[in-house]
Structure formats: C-alpha cells, structure tokens
Amino acid sequence: MVQPDEPSVDDLSLDALRCRLAETLAELARLGEENAALKAEIARLKGHKGRPQLKPSGMEQATGRTKPKRKRRSGKAEGVSRRIPVVGEELTLGVEAAPGWRFKGYDAFIVQDLRLETRVIRYRRERWLTPAGKLIVAPLPAGLQGHFGPELVRFILMQHHQGQVTAERITAFLNGVGMVISKRQVVRVLTGGGAAFAAEMTDVLRAGLTTASWLTVDDTGARHRARNGVTTQIGDDRFTFFATTFSKSRRNFLELLRAGHDDYVINGEALAYMRRHNLAGPVIAQLEGQDAKRFPDRAAWTAHLDRQGISRLEVHPDPVKIATEGALWGSIHAHGHLQGTVILSDDAGQFRIGEHALCWVHAERSMHKLIGFNDDQRRALDITRQLVWWLYADLKAYKRQPCPKRATQLKRRFDRIFKRKTGFVTLDRLLARLHGRKDELLRVLVRPEIPLHTNGSENDIRCHVTKRKVSGGTWSEPGRLARDTFLGLMKTCQKLGVPFFNYLGARLLVPATAAIAPLPKLVIAANP
Fold it and tell me: Cα separation of 95 and 97, whole Å?
C-alpha cells in the first residue's frame, strides 16, 4: 500500500510545527540515551571500567558536631496549633442532647483553610468641574496596577518567583478560577512596576557591602536575549543580591560592587590596587599627578585615559585594564563599601580581590576528583584526604573557640600536610598548588567569624538555576531586572525571617497588611 506523501514544512500550521519539533526532540533524546548505553556496553565488553560515578565528598557533613537524636514522642502530634498565629473565626458545633446528659464544655479543633475567589470591583469615581473649567476626578486607591488589584499582583509575583510557576500556567490557573486575564497581561505584571523593588534591592546591597565583615560570592550561567550570560551572586547570612550580565570578568565584578554608582575614583586604594597588579610606575605617577580624581561615568573615564595617552600604550599588563579596575576599586572604597570585608570564593579569578579567602570544600573537591590507578596511589590519596578532613574539623573547632597558640599549631600542621611527598605526582602537584594559597585557606585563623566554605552562595544561587530550568531565559531588560530583583528580595526576606508574602503585601499596599520596615534597615540591624 502506497503511503501518502507527508506535507511540507511550509504547509504545516504553528501547532503542527510545535508537535513536529517536540517529536524530533524526544527522538533525539532517546537516540542519545541509546548511544550512551551502547558505548557503555562496548566499554564493558572491552574490559574497560567506564566513566567513574563521582559523589560529593561529604567533608562538611562528616566533620560537623553530631546532634543528639530527638526522642520520638508518643501520642498526638503537638505544637501545630501553637504555630498558628491568629484564629480568624470561631464556630460552635452542637449536638442534640438527650435527657440526662451533662454539658462538659467544648473540645477545640483547629482547621486551616484557604479561600480563593474572584473579585470584580467597579469604582464609581466622582467627577467635578471647577469654575475655571478644570475636571477633577476622584483618585483610585493606592496599589492598583492598571485594572488589577494588589492582591492579584501579589499572587502572581508569589507564584512566579517563589513557586517557580511559569506565566502560561499562572494564566491558565487564573482563567480557571474565573479571572479574565491573558498571558501578556501576566507578563506585564511580572515585569512592570518593579522600579521601587529594584531600588530597594540596590539599597540592600549597599547596606550589606557597608556593614558586612565577610561575603560569599558565586556565579552561574544565564540566558538573556538568546545569548549566554552569567548571573553573579553576592551575599552573606543577612542578604542576597543577583545580577545578570554578559561578562564574567573582574571588571564586571567590581562594577557590581559599586552597588549602582557609576563613578571612577583615583584615591589611595585605587593606586595601591594598581601597584599590586604591576601597573607601570610612570603610568601610576601620571594618574596620581592629575588634578582630576573623580569621573562621573565610563565615558568621562575613557576620555581621561585617551587624553593621557594611556589607552595607546601596548604593554603587558594592559594599562587600561589595570587602571580601570583600580579606579573601580577606588570608587568602591570611596562609597564606604568593603571596609575590612573578606571575600570568600571558590577560587574563580574574577573574585580574587581585596582580602580574599578560599573555600575549603572546593579545595578538597579537587582531591576528591583525583583517581588513583594503583594501590599505592589510592592509599596516598585516602591518607591525604583523611588528614585534610581532620584539619578541617579542627578549623571548625577553632572558629568556636579562637586561640593564638592553637592558630600557630594549625599553621604548622597545614605545612606538614601540604608539603608531603606522596609519590602520586598529580596529588603532589595539587598539594603544592594549595600550599601556595595558604594565606587564603587559613584566613579563618585571623578572622574566625568568616565561614570555611561557600555553601551559602551555592544554596542561594540554586533558586536561580531552578528558575533557568523552568522558565528558560529572559528577553527584555525589565524581565531580566525583575527576575534578579525578586529572587534577591525573596532570599533576603528568608534570611531576615520576613515572610515574602507579607513583604509583598506591605510594598504593594494590600489592605489590612502589617507594615514592614525597609529591608536595608533590617539588614543593618541584623549585623552582629
């Protein structure tokens, strides 16, 4: 039987094209899995071991203090009703009493419920005509965004940013409960009206940079306008800030640390930065000798470098790059940021500025990834990792009870571990490299208040990764700004113990919502 010819792609509708694309992607995924399985079978038949399955090393969990097991309580689960703040209403249930019964009071039973209803309000606004011919119309209540009330706006923001629900599903849900709203209108609610939230997030970053004794930083990939970008995370145990850009350079990181300021400053900190990064002495003297020391924006700074002839120099290191980074560093300090703040990172080069510390978990992970090819190498690797684990456990104990004598002992012990010659060449090279970063790994001995790892940053940035998997990338600048702003505010509220639902209600002027102080003030108040 002759099969009819399939229609050409040009003749297919949009829905048919989407179905065809979905089928093609599913087939490619299936073929990929089949190909991987065949490669694994071929390797097995050849006697190869295949790809190793690496698991997290577990150093942080293994070196923690053991918590006593909580005794299991028998009987009813208690404590739930104590966490319910307010009983909204009270209903009395009765039974038809028979003769001889005696009333013994009431048995309380608390039920939590949720009410979802669609409200359509028509405001009849008075209009008055003044003797001068001007028409006066009664103003609408505060908090309205177009034709949508603050409760609806809060619900959409909560679902999208905290619930990770896509705009399509939010639209379908609202239409299902009787609301007349389109996806475009939902997107406008998500991306519009966020200027006030973005301004508060910038103030949160400034408050954090001004008062933080330490910061953990990290980054992850992001998509914007169909291009690969990077989202940088900055935060401590009081706040979290996200910013998505197309650069992963140190200059980009320094620009973020300016917290919304655009100026470039030549001061003592800027000149010291240039000297540390080997900028030529005559260039430093030239910049220091000029009367102009502060430049309002990048254009003014670039013009200044052109006038001085620095941009025409062809030497290494690049004088424009180092001078620009130094001026950014000077701007950061001119605004009172990072005064004695330790920056803790996973050893990414762009984060290695100022008083820098290294994450021990990432350092140990490089050992965990090594594979020994014989018994001697595996034994050397196991012994070294065990020594590092014991040292890490003692560093955690030192954080709880700092002692100068103990700090000296830990430094000597660090040298003994990382100067060992194990005979495993790759491991020995790794130990030598880590020993060269001794000051950054042992920064905790001088500043015991800083953490030993960047787990806080990885936990913060996980919500951004989930957002990327669920919703993909962003296309508009308001969309990018809204995503970074609301995820940062949500994480900051979580760290400050402020329910995000209540925060949105206070900022959107939802009726009967308690006021919440500006988050920058709460960040400053939470500083130990």
Answer: 6
